[in-house]
Amino acid sequence: MSILLRTVIALWTAVMLASAPAAAQDRVKVIASFSILADLVKNVGGDRVDLSVLVGRGSDAHVYAPTPADARKVAEARLVVVNGLGFEGWLDRLIKAAGGKATVVVATKGIKARKAAGDHDHDRKDGHKHDHDDDVDPHAWQNVLNVKTYVANIRDALAAADPAGADTYKVNAAAYSARLDALNADVRAATAKIPSARRKIITNHDAFGYFGAAYGIRFVAPQGVATESEPSARDVARIISQMKRQRIPAVFLENISDPRLMQRIAKETGAKIGGTLYSDALTAANGPAPTYIDMMRHNLGTLVGALATS
After folding, report:
1. Fold of 188-307
2. Dihedral in degrees, nearest 10, Cα atoms 244, 248, 249, 252
3. How far is CA 230 from CA 49, 137, 191, 264, 277, in A?
4. Range in 1-5, 129-133, 235-239, 240-244 with the lowest mean pLDDT
5. Over 60: is that where the pLDDT of 281 sits?
6. 3-state helix vs strand vs coil in the chain, percent to 5
7. Are 175 and 288 in contact (CB under 8 A)?
């Protein structure tokens, strides 16, 4: 066998070994705090990562209560990927219960946080608090370009924990970042077509501030609506008055579930009732927002559909 042939075979073998999925026992055990982060870790880590998530699809990370089983999961993990910016108010307790040995990766490291628009220490239905630190808005993933920073932080953390997979993480992160660039361009192009006078809506959860700042949509918090109950007639009257005064063309209110109320608001204000905007959690695989990119595209289509002129 010639030296050239042996060299080619050796190089081919090295490439195949590097690209092959890691054995189950060699995969990096990673815990993501909630479903959106889990999707990002999956895209960067691929088959080299043994991934679990604490707050699953369709669940609210704001009201999460750690369990002993979760503490055991964290104790066994190499990395715990969290959003930071006060989003996981329960994190310190969980890490302490787990023994504090896992490396905590703050995905928002390097992102300039924005100030929250409203009060983020209000009581929720179940008695928990919506706990954001120092009035900082933690929902940084609503700006697509911020997610490129998330991806870079995840890539670097995985490479540090698994140097043999560094090239794989680099390639995966670059490919996903290219998809994020395309998504960001689509969001900018679509929102730019919305007349400036119509770029405002009402939502009852201040989760879209980064989106609004990046893409020129004004998200207005409703006046007088509590999150723990259905709105009263007075609440609805306040919403109607606010919408008329500020000429808001669309409303997305999670806690208005009675279609008669929605019809009344639409009739009295002339506003469109928008669909569901997904903010803090992905849907199941058969839902409209099973991945981060799907979630953002769904929200974009819903917003454009509600705000575009007829």
Report:
1. Rossmann fold (3.40.50)
2. -110
3. 43, 25, 31, 15, 19
4. 129-133
5. yes
6. 50, 15, 35
7. no
Long-range own/partner contacts, residues 194-200 (CB < 8 A, 24 or more apart): 194/303, 194/304, 194/307, 194/308, 195/309, 197/247, 198/249, 198/307, 198/308, 198/309, 199/307, 200/246, 200/247, 200/248, 200/249
Amino acid at 53: V
Domain with CATH 3.40.50.1980 in the chain: 22-185, 188-307
Residues 160-218 pLDDT 10s? 999 999 999 999 999 999 999 999 999 999 999 898 888 888 776 678 899 999 999 98
Can you give the pTM of this predicted structure?
0.80
Q: Rounded mean pLDDT of the chain?
A: 81
**Is 78:130 a contact under the CB 8 Å cutoff?**
no
- The DSSP bridge partners found for residue 136 are 115
What's the CATH class of domain 22-185? alpha beta
Q: Copy the structure tokens of residue 268.
A: 């009295």
